[in-house]
Amino acid sequence: MTLLRSLENRGYPGDYLLARVRGRRGRLVADWRAAAALPSSPEGHPGDAWGLFQRELCWLAAQMNRSLQKAFVPVFEYL
Fold first, then answer.
1. How do the domains of the chain map onto residue ranges?
2. Which residues of 11-44 are buried (b: 16+ CB within 10 A; e: fewer)?
């Protein structure tokens, strides 16, 4: 008897993840060109736009089900 099972299709539904990305993208950084011109800030500093963006991407990738992860491999490899 197996007490623990591996859930193959874990993660949030795609519609929820899309809504989360749409709702948060403007709050992360509204103008990426201006943010890119700024000097890097220390790790963990609230103004560290790139760090905030990377943490959001890590969360997003971890919440995707396998089919979404496969579909978005090019995006995560590029970044």
1. 14-78
2. beeeeebeeeeeeeeeeeeeeeeeeeeeeeeeee
